[in-house]
């Protein structure tokens, strides 16, 4: 039997306070200033630090409850297949349904349950999986345990397990994974929270399948949690879940995007809500969450490490969305697509530990201190990162610090057309991954990845690496392509592998004729238009404007009849290069193929092969053709069909899966004087297909007759590159 938490008194409406009070709290959280309201008065009478925790009663024990209080000798073993498990350290109390492992209750700070009372018990705090048979349709499965056990119990720590075991001999098409989800509770008098992790295993004899996504979801009290915080700049009041339904919301052409036409909070009327607008790169996240009203409680998901998340540091993932939902995403295809699926073959075995991550709870009785909950959560993130890897995890598959190793080195860039000297790889990203080809770390999903950013001199140390043999990868802002060291790197427990000085030589044949953009694997340096006022999200009016809905249609507003023409030496990429190469909306809302033109002048054509370096930040369902001077088959120099499933354009991203191409252009196709390069987006009829370009460069053939010109370019370009480099990473 499951004990239902005591319900709060009936609310006057869906919100527990007026829209005016919500607006006040929003302003407070942004400014940190005190305010006067009925909410402030009620909050002033609440002190979460004096809240007592009710001890286990005889009635609780009789109803099949396992009650464990860390630090106290209170533990009752009952029927393994009935009732709840209650974990209580005197500050936070968790209620978990056994043996399934569904988190049904979190009591903290004067609130009987932080989780949504209107959701059923399997939909409050849970793990889930998206998977498929090879070539088959996507399947969704809620992770439900069949065996409950206490893994570890001491005076200062409790760890419990809810395990589902897969038997390959079982008939039917079942998820071929054994999954052990665990909750850990440690008695730390200064910290309120708990850890979660899961052990995923493909046992011998399992059939082939593809793993698309796995995560843990927390659905919070909808009448209490209204305010999200995912960064210093990205904080706001969110809609209610009812606002997404017909009558209050209007679904747009992207299914996840809803125009709020009659929201419960009238301040949100006319805005667009979409969960993808709140995505973050792995490297830029680490902590995100919600803040409630009356009482004022912060609920935060903290990732102490990204080593167990797929796709490396630039992988974008969801964080929070209307519900109110708070997500811990471990493995997903968002912003990349099928290229990042984890493919398992017949009979292949595999094991991976996802986590542990930390759920941190904090509160304040003073509404004027509400913003400090975010400041405190950021500090707690640093505490968790410093404690990684944890020393209290009770599984041999998770390695402690003494069981891990490290690697130290220094990375340089050798680019002879920029500088005659080695260039320190300033603020580059360097990582160890199981991938063994250039750039393949972006789609690596089975193993662990370990990444750091170099200092201003290119120095780096990658700590706490699980022993094994890895490829050493990297990429350097300001330079094209991916770095991969020629030799695999072996990491041993308890030792530091000295890599010495390493050199990345970006691909280059000859001097630059022209270039467009800055190579940072995004389209952020190009023109991002203002949003159509009909589809605004006020949070992104000035910061991360690319997150706004419907920007693909703004191309048609700017170029209603003809396409973009960019003239080298005249046009400005920040003003004249639209950030997304998309179809143009024509009559009857039909979307038409588009052709972008790059005009440039060549004083003299050198015999040989010119090179076009084309770096793409994201591609979705694209047929691209590149022609020189004339659009016909004789002048076609590059063609790629049906490329990409990133969906970064419709999901409001500025990058997805990085792709790089080198294109040969015979000198016979060029003429002295004016030339044109045509980028033909050949597929029409799709409003959401297209390309986010990162950078492109035309190189002349290397020639001894141009040595003097090359040397002159070195001096000027080295100065320009350093200037842009500093602006990009120090502002």
Automatic annotation (TrEMBL):
The keyword Signal applies. One of its GO terms (molecular function) is carbohydrate binding. It comes from Tripterygium wilfordii. This is Rhamnogalacturonan endolyase. Residues 426-497, 512-698 form the Rhamnogalacturonan lyase domain. InterPro entries: Carb-bd-like_fold, Galactose-bd-like_sf, GH-type_carb-bd, Polysacch_Lyase_4, RG-lyase_II, RG-lyase_III, Rhamnogal_lyase. It comes from the Eukaryota. The lineage of its organism: Eukaryota, Viridiplantae, Streptophyta, Embryophyta, Tracheophyta. Keywords: Signal.
């Amino acid at each position: 039997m499951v004990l239902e938490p005591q319900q709060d008194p009936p609310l006057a409406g869906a919100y527990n306070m007026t829209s005016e009070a919500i607006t006040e709290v929003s302003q407070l959280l942004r400014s940190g200033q005190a305010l006067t309201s009925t909410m402030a008065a009620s909050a002033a009478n609440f002190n979460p630090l004096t809240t007592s925790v009710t001890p286990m009663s005889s009635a609780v024990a009789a109803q099949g409850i396992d009650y464990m209080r860390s630090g106290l000798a209170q533990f009752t073993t009952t029927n393994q297949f009935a009732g709840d498990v209650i974990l209580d350290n005197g500050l936070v109390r968790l209620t978990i349904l056994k043996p399934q492992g569904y988190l049904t209750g979190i009591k903290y700070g004067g609130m009987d349950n932080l989780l949504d009372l209107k959701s059923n018990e399997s939909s409050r705090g849970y793990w889930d999986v998206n998977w498929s048979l090879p070539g088959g349709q996507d399947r969704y499965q809620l992770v439900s345990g069949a065996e409950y056990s206490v893994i570890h119990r001491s005076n200062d720590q409790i760890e419990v397990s809810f395990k589902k075991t897969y038997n390959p001999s079982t008939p039917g098409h079942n998820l071929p994974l054994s999954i052990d989800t665990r909750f850990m509770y440690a008695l730390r008098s200064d910290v309120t929270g708990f850890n979660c992790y899961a052990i995923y295993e493909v046992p011998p004899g399992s059939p082939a399948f593809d793993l698309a996504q796995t995560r843990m979801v927390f659905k919070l009290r909808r009448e209490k949690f209204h305010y999200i915080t995912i960064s210093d700049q990205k904080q706001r009041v969110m809609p209610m879940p009812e606002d997404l339904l017909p009558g209050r919301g209007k679904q747009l052409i992207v299914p996840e995007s809803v125009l709020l036409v009659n929201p419960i909070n009238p301040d949100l009327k006319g805005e667009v809500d979409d969960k993808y607008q709140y995505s973050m790169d792995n490297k830029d996240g680490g902590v995100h969450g919600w803040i409630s009203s009356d009482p004022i409680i912060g609920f935060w998901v903290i990732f102490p490490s990204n080593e167990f998340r797929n796709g490396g540091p630039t992988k974008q993932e969801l964080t929070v969305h209307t519900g109110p939902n708070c997500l811990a995403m471990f493995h997903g295809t968002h912003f990349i697509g099928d290229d990042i699926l984890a493919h398992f073959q017949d009979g292949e075995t595999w094991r991976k530990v996802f986590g542990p991550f930390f759920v941190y709870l904090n509160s304040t009785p003073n509404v004027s201190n509400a913003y400090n909950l975010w400041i405190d959560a950021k500090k707690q993130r640093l505490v968790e990162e410093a404690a990684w890897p944890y020393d209290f995890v009770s599984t041999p598959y998770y390695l402690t610090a003494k069981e891990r190793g490290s690697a130290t080195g220094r990375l340089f860039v050798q680019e002879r057309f920029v500088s005659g000297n080695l260039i320190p790889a300033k603020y580059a990203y360097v990582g160890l991954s199981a991938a063994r080809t250039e750039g393949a770390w972006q789609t690596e999903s089975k193993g662990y990845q370990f990444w750091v950013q170099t200092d201003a001199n290119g120095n780096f140390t990658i700590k706490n690496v699980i022993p094994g043999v890895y490829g050493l990868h990297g990429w350097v802002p300001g330079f094209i392509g991916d770095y991969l060291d020629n030799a695999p790197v072996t990491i041993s427990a308890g030792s530091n592998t000295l890599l010495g000085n390493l050199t990345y030589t970006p691909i280059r044949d000859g001097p630059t004729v022209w270039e467009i953009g800055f190579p940072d694997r995004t389209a952020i340096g190009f023109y991002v238009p203002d949003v159509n006022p009909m589809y605004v999200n006020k949070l992104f009016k000035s910061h991360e404007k690319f997150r706004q809905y419907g920007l693909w249609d703004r191309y048609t507003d700017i170029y209603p009849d003809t396409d973009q023409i960019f003239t080298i030496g005249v046009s400005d990429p920040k003003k004249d290069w639209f950030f997304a190469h998309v179809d143009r909306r024509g009559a009857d809302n039909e979307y038409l193929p588009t052709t972008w033109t790059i005009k440039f002048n060549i004083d003299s054509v050198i015999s040989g092969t010119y090179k076009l370096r084309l770096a793409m930040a994201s591609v979705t369902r694209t047929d691209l053709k590149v022609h020189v001077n004339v659009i016909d088959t004789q002048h076609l120099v590059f063609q790629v069909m049906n490329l990409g499933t990133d969906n970064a354009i419709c999901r409001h991203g500025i990058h997805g899966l990085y792709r790089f191409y080198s294109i040969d252009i015979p000198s016979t196709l060029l003429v002295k004087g004016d030339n044109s390069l045509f980028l033909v987006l050949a597929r029409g009829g799709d409003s959401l297909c297209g390309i986010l370009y990162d950078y492109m460069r035309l190189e002349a053939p290397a020639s001894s007759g141009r040595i003097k010109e090359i040397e002159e370019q070195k001096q000027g370009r080295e100065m320009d590159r350093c200037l842009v480099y500093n602006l990009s990473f120090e502002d």
